[in-house]
Amino acid sequence: MGIQIGSLNVRRNILIDALPARVWSEFANYQKMKAWFGQGHTLETYEPGLGGKVELSIVDKGETKVFGGKILVFEAAGELTFENNWFTDDAWPVATYITIRLGSLYSGTLVELYHHGFERLGAAASETLVGYENGWGANHLTSLRNIVLKGKSQK
């Protein structure tokens, strides 16, 4: 697998009753990705492939803030990792990372979502991690599972 996950990370996961290749098909393009990953924030740009980019936005106190970065790992049916930093004055000195990994488990796919790399932020790492630990839910992964299983039931 691609990027090493450090000790300071937020991890959410879900088991989906489908093969990794089927789950990965929901990473194929902007429209498919937006359908499940655009939860709680808006997926503005998604250029699938190594070196592509992911840009997301949120509205915070009435102001739209954009974040994301370059895709560092794009392994079909395996891993998507991209840089994560604010495109605002709130930018960190270095990016954190968002990694989504797919792996076989039982007869399905374990999907793990990590927001990691907080140790790169030095003294701000602990407080920043706590904020994101409280902010991340499993709604993205639940949406992904629902889309995959809906497609399975229609066949």
Describe the fold and architecture.
The chain has helices spanning 20-24, 30-37, 125-135, 139-153; strands spanning 9-16, 42-46, 53-60, 63-75, 79-86, 96-105, 108-116. With 155 residues, the chain is of the alpha+beta class. It has one domain: START domain (Alpha-D-Glucose-1,6-Bisphosphate, Chain A, domain 4, 2-Layer Sandwich). A seven-stranded antiparallel β-sheet has the order 1-7-6-5-4-3-2. A hairpin with a 3-residue loop joins strand 4 (63-75) and strand 5 (79-86). The protein is globular. It starts with 8 loop residues before the first strand and ends with a helix. 25% of the residues are buried. The mean pLDDT is 94.
Topology:
Blueprint: E1 9-16, H1 20-24, H2 30-37, E2 42-46, E3 53-60, E4 63-75, E5 79-86, E6 96-105, E7 108-116, H3 125-135, H4 139-153
Antiparallel strand pairs: 1-7, 2-3, 3-4, 4-5, 5-6, 6-7
